[in-house]
Amino acid sequence: MLKTMEGGCHCRRVRFRVTADLTRVTDCNCSICTKKGFLHLIVPPERFELLSGEDELTTYLFNTGTAKHTFCKHCGIHPFYVPRSDPDKIDVNVRCLDDIELATISPKSFDGKNWEAAMGARVPWR
Question: Fold for domain 3-107?
Answer without folding.
Answer: 2.170.150
